[in-house]
Amino acid sequence: EEKVLHKSEITNITFSSDGTRMVTGDEQGTVGVWRTHRGLTPICQYSKSGAITNVAFCGLAFEEESAEKWNSLFFFGGKKGSVCLADDLKNCSEVCKVGGSVK
């Protein structure tokens, strides 16, 4: 059975530095998190108001054992100005709001 996370045009795609995760954002505000090993497998999704205009993985690791944790963290922002920090375990929080679209 195929899962569909997006029902509108995808606006952003980014990959984790090790290539194991992909994050997608769309016009309706859906963010999809995918595992890339042996094809694409949906892990989780988030829904926000307005189009997702930017997604980026965190890419920081201070200790080797924390690299996997940091590799799963990513930011996404939208047309309505909010920036969120999320992971692939369904944790998501707004970290800031700007006066315009996040580009």
From TrEMBL:
<dbReference type="InterPro" id="IPR036322">
    <property type="entry name" value="WD40_repeat_dom_sf"/>
</dbReference>
<keyword id="KW-0853">WD repeat</keyword>
<feature type="repeat" description="WD">
    <location>
        <begin position="6"/>
        <end position="34"/>
    </location>
</feature>
<dbReference type="InterPro" id="IPR001680">
    <property type="entry name" value="WD40_rpt"/>
</dbReference>
<protein>
    <submittedName>
        <fullName>Uncharacterized protein</fullName>
    </submittedName>
</protein>
<dbReference type="InterPro" id="IPR015943">
    <property type="entry name" value="WD40/YVTN_repeat-like_dom_sf"/>
</dbReference>
